[in-house]
TrEMBL record:
Homotetramer. InterPro entries: Ald_DH/histidinol_DH, Ald_DH_C, Ald_DH_CS_GLU, Ald_DH_N, Aldehyde_DH_dom, ALDH7A1-like. This is aldehyde dehydrogenase (NAD(+)). Residues 23-489 form the Aldehyde dehydrogenase domain. Its EC number is 1.2.1.3. The active site is at E261. Keywords: NAD, Oxidoreductase. GO terms for molecular function: aldehyde dehydrogenase (NAD+) activity. The keyword Oxidoreductase applies. The keyword Membrane does not apply. PROSITE patterns: ALDEHYDE_DEHYDR_GLU.
Amino acid sequence: MQDVLKQLGIKDQNSGTSTGLQWIESHGKTISSYSPVDGHLIASIKITDDNSYEEVIRTAQKAFIEWRTWPSPKRGDVVRQIGEALRKNKENLGKLVSYEMGKSLQEGYGEVQEMIDICDFAVGLSRQLHGLTMHSERPGHRMYEQWHPLGIAAIISAFNFPVAVWSWNAMLGWVCGDVCLWKPSEKTPLCAVACQNIIAEVFNKNGVPEGVSCIVTGEREMGDKIAKDSRIPLVSATGSTRMGKSVGAAVGARLGRSLLELGGNNAIIISRDADLDMALIGCLFGAVGTAGQRCTSTRRLIIHDEVYDKFKEKLVNAYKQLRIGNPLDENNHVGPLIDKAAVESYLKAIEKCKAEGGTFIVEGGVLEGPGYETGCYVKPCIAEAQPHFEIVQHETFAPILYLMKYKTFDEAIAIQNNVPQGLSSAVMTLNLREAEQFLSSSGSDCGIANVNIGTSGAEIGGAFGGEKETGGGRESGSDAWRFYMRRQTNTINYSKSLPLAQGIKFDL
């Protein structure tokens, strides 16, 4: 790992504050990043203090004045080069993501690939930031709309996707003409340091003004500072619903714009008309991928009572084959939870489920012994539960899967929708009527609804986000770019007169 860190420009002691082309000195406290894989210290950073924060904001404001004048295709070409740089660094950055966060190596590589993919998407988008033209009711007039950059777009990212979700925001923000301020999770700050080092080389080569890509680091207080800062028109925040409510309230109080990607409590409906072998694959990956620490992780299975026992048996057998261990070993399926606090939350959820009457058909617990010394490796578990259980209504960021039965498809949809969150959902069925009902206005109430694929694995081409306590934000593909810009309606009078609205006339 030392060779990986060296190639990514990470030192034993790192600055956690950057104006894009240089790391600046801060007198904030030191945060040490320990790997949940083996408990070893990776490196440390100095978090951003008040003075260095102000320097970053001033630099970003100055950079925006120039960056917004660059033609969007030219900005897009810079993003294209970032994609090429990420391709060259995919192996090293993927290993760092896996080691610092704890996800499997395949998922680490996959996360960097998402960054590359969003670069490709943003390059095409840079030539398509188009508005509408409208017919004016006044003769000799033309109306149209256009889109302009906002200014500083702040991105508060979570530990579970330490680089990909930032890139969804940053690449779009940059082609739209915004400058970006990144506050990475304090649990995975070194991934951000590595990304900034990669980007700085591209920016230097292209004469990009300093301040277009900034980083500030810190804990909750830094997020609060960003949310309350009126110089930042857009705050995109990914994390818990609790965090999102705090950020949304602070940004809303100053009439700023917030893009919130918050909790998920995602369900898969298993129809009696499902291909059970295919359904098993989607359910297994959804439940145990990233050790259940995805916002799109499958938390609930709603299974038709006629296939319940058969599918339960398949699922239990599949869990017996899971290999839990060092995520850098590609033979393992499941790595560790991010830290001891996550383990404690996992254990409390198990006890809560049992207290409410849940029955565990695959027992959980913390793994011990050689290879598990960090205390962060846990057993993916399965409980038979009822939809009304309080713990079932709650998102636990860990590999706990709840099973429940249904008799009618309307009942299944009602069970799925009857939780506070509304991110991702899926149905496994070969019944066309069920599939179409699930996707209709009387079906899933989530921002993402899938048929015959699981709840995880969203593609960057579609807008990503959810409803209800998930926050309502949309990132990545489709027309998500509009959130990073401001709309302006324009009217041009090329006639020889000036007709006024509502027939008003001045006799001059």
